[in-house]
Amino acid sequence: MRTLWLSPRADLFGPAAAAGLLAALLVWLGPPGTDLAAHVYQRTLFIEHGFVLWNNFWYAGRYSFVNYSVLYYPLAAAIGIKLLAVLTVAVAVIAFAAVVRHEWESHSRWAIRAFALVWALLVVSAAYPFMLGMTLALLALWSLQQDRSRLFASFTLLSLAASPLAFLLLVVLLTGVALARRGEHRRFVAPPPPSARSPRSSSCSGACSPAAAPFRFPSKSSSQPALSVSSASS
């Protein structure tokens, strides 16, 4: 009983702890990520000037936050880029494990472990706003599985604020699930009562039953006299 109680929690928190440790080693001891310089600049811009709509010092000028990530840089300014990356990886693995274990139970064990490894290695790219958005999208899926509509809506909006690309992937996934399950409710429709059936089907029910239908092949008892007659004549 104790083993059964600990197994789901081990599948949730074990891979998350391992992924968080690997992500921490890569973030603090590994090479800087590809997009790290951009995030450092954007974080510094937010700390010094807050939310600004336009930035003339980025290439030929660009919108600073509204077209990339509204949520990530305030969080990065509050707790730091590296710590936020590690927490994002750990929470994403927990959310992914909860979602796939709800659907496939113990068969999802290796999928959880593979996701933990891949998601921890993703910090090398330093795509931190996208990773934060996907974490929130996974939390939205978990909320949807638990029938918590308000929490689902909140995580969905936060995913949009963190990364429009992650929000788009969430919309594509939800659309695919809705299209795949649109006919499932028909499997659970109860058959109509006998009084609601058509007269043709009710009249056929007696004639088409096995008891009323003629038996096409002679039974063993009916074929026995024929065998005795043939043996007597011979």
- Assembly state: single chain
Largest beta sheet, briefly? Answer: 2 strands, antiparallel
Put simply, the count of helices is 10
Q: How many beta strands in the DSSP annotation?
A: 2
Rounded to an integer in angstroms, the radius of gyration calculated over CA atoms is 32 Å
What proportion of the residues form beta strands (DSSP E)? under 5%
Stretches with pLDDT under 50, minimum 5 residues: 1-6, 212-234
Series of secondary-structure elements, N-terminal to C-terminal? HHEEHHHHHHHH
**Which range best describes the helical content: under 10%, 10-25%, 25-40%, 40-55%, 55-70% or over 70%?**
55-70%
Rounded average pLDDT: 78
- Mass-distribution shape: globular
* Strand-pairing-aware structural class: mainly alpha
Order of strands across the main sheet: 1-2
